[in-house]
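Entry
Fold in token form

___
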Amino acid sequence: MYIAYSALQTASQHNAPIQTESQNKELLLRYQAYQSICQKYHHEITAIQQYLPGWTPAFK
């Protein structure tokens, strides 16, 4: 899950010395939503990974 979490970081966030509380909350909400969707479509993701090993849903 570290890979998914690191995908949430934008270039500006890597350069920003301090993140605001609202940015942290938004990041956490986006991460939780991504986890939720992955759990919901676990069977579909598993079926796709049979043909494309290592495939994961894109995070946007």
Observations:
- The helical segments are 2-7, 11-15, 21-40, 42-51.
